[in-house]
Amino acid sequence: MRFLIDVFKGLWSLFVGLGVTFKYMFRKKTTVQYPEIKKPLADRFIGYVKMMYETEGEFAGHTKCVACMACVVVCPVSCIQVTHDKHPDPTKKRIANDFILDYTKCEFCNLCVEACNFDAIIMGHDYELSFYDRADMDMILVKDKKYNDDLYAASRRQTGSEYRPIIAPREREIVDVINKREHEERLKKQAEKSPAQQSE
Amino acid sequence: MDVILGLLYVVILFSLVAVQVLILVFMERKVSAWIQSRIGPNRVGPWGLLQTTADIIKLITKENIRNIQSDKVIFFLAPILAFVAPFAGFVTIPVAENLGIQDLNMGAVYVFALGSSMVFSVIWAGYGSNNRYALIGAMRSAAQMISYEIPLVTSVLGVFLIAGTLSMREIVALQESGTWYVIYQPLGFILFLVAATAEANRAPFDLPEAESELVAGFHTEYSGMKFAFFFLAEYTEMLVACSLMTVLFLGGWLIPFVDNSQIPWWIHIFVFIFKVYSMIFLMMWFRWTFPRLRVDHLMQFGWKVLLPFALVNLVVTGAVALWLKS
Amino acid sequence: MSEQLTHSASKKAFRKDIPLIDQIPPRKKHILRGLPESELHVEEFLMNIGPQHPSTHGVLRLVVSMEGEVVKSCEPDLGYLHRTFEKISENRTYQQIVPFTDRMDYLGSMNANWGVAAAVEKLASIEVPERAEYIRVIVAELNRIASHLMWMGAFAADIGALTGFVYGFREREMILDMFEEICGSRLTYGYIRVGGVAEDVTPKFIQMVNDFLKILPDRVTDYHDLITGNVIFIERTRGIGAITLDEAISYDITGPMLRACGLPWDLRKEEPYSLYSKFDFNIPAYFNGDCYDRFRVRMDEIMEAAKIVRQALDGLPEGDYKVKKLARNIKPPVGDVYIRQEAPRGEYGVYMESDGSIKPNRVKYRTPSFTNLSILPLAARGWKIADLIAILGSVDIVLGDVDR
User: Fold this and answer.
1) Res C20 pLDDT > 80
2) Which pLDDT value is given to residue A167?
3) Residue, of C309 and C1, whose pLDDT is higher
4) Taking a C-beta distance cutoff of 8 angstroms, is the pair B126, B156 a contact?
5) Does C15 score more than 70 pLDDT?
6) Which residues of C touch B202 (CB under 8 A)?
7) Which of B234, C9, C256, C335 could form a Cys-Cys staple with C297, CB 3.0–4.6 A?
């Protein structure tokens, strides 16, 4: 008799389990269809580091970073390098030339952003971190906003992905070549124009 | 001429089964997804219907890797037998009236005999691939198949007692006048369902390929097309088991409370497929709900629970049948 | 103190000149002599489980000697995920250590952060604001729930119920969303810092926690229906891998594994740190010390942790969330400190020795997974291979925590 009771108790527990799975079969699904639909990120989301630029004043378009090296010192894995130039603003000493961040090392700990006294870097909301090449994981942020935007555009052109705002050295070279060519063409045009102007 | 006709039957049957398996794999994925609050495949083709096709193409084009220490012949033969044995079982299953390849006068026995030869393929695969996980999986499989073969057959003996025949088509035809045999044999039906799940190596009885313990069990070393054959075999066996259940217990192609002779044959086919798929859904539902049994529990369950109940069922059925006859 | 103990134990695992398996007797050679010792001679064979295996929870390697399906001995081989965190910590400033601790116990990062933060605060005598302590308790208990949910899923998957796995992850996802809201990360938080927490909680976070606490009891009931009550699950776990209380204490087992043996030992009650003496909660304990009791202890702990979160959320005071004026480089006075806290997996200890500079002189982490794993050879002996997986799952190891 006890055997029978055990068998039926066991059978009943199985039916209870089946009931749970049956219930969830018709509940709302939790899947988010990722590339099409993206979950809204929290405001504090830690993604790529982004450079902030002056928006107004005489030096609009220049980076806010003055190369004080606070972030370089505080980084637990030493993944930040900053090179600097003389700042065009005479009241300030230095301006960052290149802000190089090695994503093979970065821990996304947010310490560099917290250490920054000038709000020059923030944590962006881009999170697609996949690369074909290790060298691509060096991200370079530059002092000039226009140049920075050019680099972003080139990066997107090359990878065809709008999710990849990272600037790798390779793309930088390409942009440099393009810019140089454009510059030369502009010079050539000016040279063509200038005799005409002289004739007037 | 007969040879050509036979070959034609095989080709048609094979393509039908292959298509069914594609649908079943897709269904398995969708059912598991729904149970787990997911959506499941929905990218390849309309509603993700071509996902399995894509996977099969991937498997076919994959390299066939063989462990250098494996037994070449056995390693090669195992997936073939694994598929052929349940596939041949389809021969006797009547899909609709006058639609079935061959009606043997002891068709049920034929199907069970083929089903039990599945164990050879699993043992070959486990032994031939010279892998310890595979070997343990094969040993488990041997023990499991042998001990579940007995309750499987015993549980359906009640149906044969009532029907008085072993021919599939006659059993279905007998259910037309009266009711389905599941009403006469509810215990037998449950026992058969459990034993058939175990025979098809489906969870919660999927010990030979228990992935959390044995990586992939007896087919750990298989890749590419050979692996696809094991995959195909599992689903084919499930299909055979569910078809058997439909024929023996659920009235085959018959629709209850309706004069079936007036209904066209293609509706019968749909009814049959619907019944089979409901049973398969039940099996999938089991798989995605229950934990896996342990080896000794499996044996205990087979010998101490399933077999006594099956014997009691048989004795009671026999007594009642005798009493009604007299 | 505990450093020496664990060190001598770990030495064996890391040194390659010591043979890995020494318990296994050498192959008997009597067959060659033609004199069988017994009629039923079963030959042992070695099976290598891991480092790549579906259920070793990371890169653990188990060298298992088996007789058929029965495990005769089982030797864990560690070190595949060793990243020298103790040495790294000695070369970083006190603030910089915190992000590394995320990588140790990556399922209980908040608790790992807290241990280091508490050690440095004790070393440098930093007074933490009350609000910060409340926030710490909330996030640490939420992390405990997340860790136990994830463990429940993984354990169910080890037993073979794959649906429990997904259900556990589904609810854990909600907690990760909360953590994303307050600290911007979903796995490696680095939220609890020296002198408080990184950022204040937001109203949205409090709303999310409230929503979660509302649905949690229903979901836990579902887990009990699906897993705990299931007859197959009970058969697979009851009595399996049972250890006695004496064994557990002599092996230095802590956390839910110890509480499953019958001793309601929990540092939150025994040595109440932070604010735990203020809250009303129970320490669940069961008496058999088997896999089923470990499962039940953790399931009960989910509800107890939810109770603490609710109380802490209701009592959350206004104020600062971190110490206002904290030197960028903390220089604690010369001395040493040992802090131990109740992490989801057991007792998590941090030993820190200061020489007065900006970097610690010596750091030692006492991680619960490592010591809890040490009982596996004893607990698994004589059980079947399927039970070995269940026992390994019930220990709740995180390989980042074991290897550091």
Assistant:
1) no
2) 52
3) C309
4) no
5) no
6) none
7) C256
In which region does residue C15 sit, left (phi positive, over 0), alpha (psi from -120 to 50) or beta (all else)? beta
Kindly provide the ipTM of the predicted complex, given to two decimals: 0.81
- Rounded CA gap, B35 and B41, in Å? 14
Closest among A21, C155, C166, C156 to B38, alpha carbons compared: C166
Provide CB contacts within 8 A for C297, sequence distance 6+. C256, C259, C260, C284, C285, C286
Q: How many CB atoms lie within 10 A of CB B15?
A: 10
Work out the minimum CA distance from A188 to partner chain C, whole angstroms.
Answer: 51
Quick count: other Cβ atoms within 10 Å of Cβ C333? 10
Rounded distance between C-alpha atoms, residue B131 and residue C88, angstroms: 41
Could you say which of C177, C190, C222 has the minimum Cβ distance to residue A109?
C190
Cβ–Cβ of A21/B37 closer than 8 Å?
Answer: no
| pLDDT at residue C379, as a whole number | 85
Task: Say whether pLDDT at C186 is over 80.
Answer: yes
Q: How many angstroms separate the Cα of C337 from the Cα of each of B266, C72, C102, C119, C289?
A: 82, 42, 21, 7, 33
CA-based nearest residue in chain A for residue B31: A25
Does some domain include residue A197? Answer: no
What span, in angstroms and rounded, lies between the C-alpha atoms of A184 and B21? 65
Domain boundaries, chain B: 1-58, 62-325
User: Angle at Cα B179 formed by Cα B176 and Cα B184, nearest 5°?
Assistant: 135
- For residue A8, being part of any structural domain is answered with no
Give the Cα separation of C315 and A21 in Å (integer): 38
**B residues 203-232 closer than 8 Å to C (CB):** 203-204, 206, 210-215
- Rounded Cα gap, residues C290 and C335, in angstroms: 42
The answer to whether the CB atoms of B289 and A21 lie below 8 A apart is yes
Chain B within 8 Å of C160 (Cβ-Cβ)? yes
Identify the CATH number of the domain in which residue A76 sits.
3.30.70.3270
Cβ-defined contact of C232 to B136 (cutoff 8 Å): no
Q: What are phi and psi of C29, to 5 degrees?
A: -105, 10
Quick check: is A53 in a domain?
yes
Stronger pLDDT, A1 or C13, i.e. the higher one: A1
Q: What share of chain C is helix, strand, coil (3-state, %, to 5)?
A: 50, 15, 40
Say which of A14, A21, A46 has its CB closest to residue C184.
A46
Residue A150 domain-assigned (yes or no): yes
Q: Is C215 on the interface with B (CB under 8 A)?
A: no
pLDDT of residue A198: 52
pLDDT of residue A170: 54
Q: Report d(CA C155, CA C148) in Å as an integer.
A: 10
Would you place residue A165 in the very low, low, confident or very high pLDDT band (cuts 50, 70, 90)? very low
- Rounded to the nearest angstrom, the minimum Cα separation between B55 and chain A is 21
Instruction: Tell me if chain C has a CB within 8 Å of the CB of B132.
Output: yes
**Which chain B residues are within 8 Å of A7, Cβ to Cβ?**
305
Question: What is the three-class DSSP state of A131?
Answer: coil
Q: Residue C205's closest chain A neighbor by CA?
A: A42
Structure tokens at C253: 């087992």
Which residue does chain B place closest to C385, by CA atoms?
A: B213
- Chain C contact present for A108, CB below 8 A: yes
What is the domain count for chain A? 1
Q: How far is A47 from chain C (nearest CA, A)?
A: 8
Rounded to 5°, the CA angle B300-C386-A19 comes to: 70
Shortest alpha-carbon distance between residue C378 and chain A (Å): 31
Report the C-alpha gap between C155 and B212 in whole angstroms.
Answer: 10
Find the DSSP H helices in C56-124.
85-90, 94-102, 109-124
* Assessment of whether the complete model's pTM goes beyond 0.95: no
Nearest CB to A17 within list B36, B38, B290:
B290
Domain assignment of residue A100, given as a range: 49-169
Q: How confident is the model at residue A89 (pLDDT cuts 50, 70, 90)?
A: confident
CB contact under 8 A, C231 and A21: no
